[in-house]
């Protein structure tokens, strides 16, 4: 886990809005040419989701209870770095903001049991949305629904296969 956090530390500085020291900062500020898009064969990997909240402690507890996330780093009073079970990327950076309603986000998470996940979300302050989806995808039954976390960020939970109907 320490290697994971050390490996993404430079990204965390960017993602959390922290500023580099003056030499690095001035070098970055003078580059006005956009980098070219990755080639078709290039690998692009999402490292972290940045999630804004009005109460970082409440959000931390919510995502621990609903998805079993682990807090791997606390950066002061207003930032938490969290990872999903298995420490697979992307992780999540929770950032406490005075205006989280202007900075809402959304993501899709594949889960083994949509209904159990929705129940956990509701039991921990989430608001269930009436967005049921049922369809066959690649020969498997797929079901999903959405909920809002306590800050109004939308999460879609997707279940593939017939487990836990």
From TrEMBL:
Please state every residue range assigned to the domain named VOC.
Answer: 45-160
Keyword Signal carried by entry: yes
Top-rank lineage group of the source organism: Bacteria
Write the record's keywords in alphabetical order, separated by commas.
Signal
Signal sequence interval, chain numbering: 1-20
Asked if Signal is a keyword of the record, the answer is yes
- Its name, as the record gives it, is VOC family protein
- Name the source organism: Novosphingobium anseongense
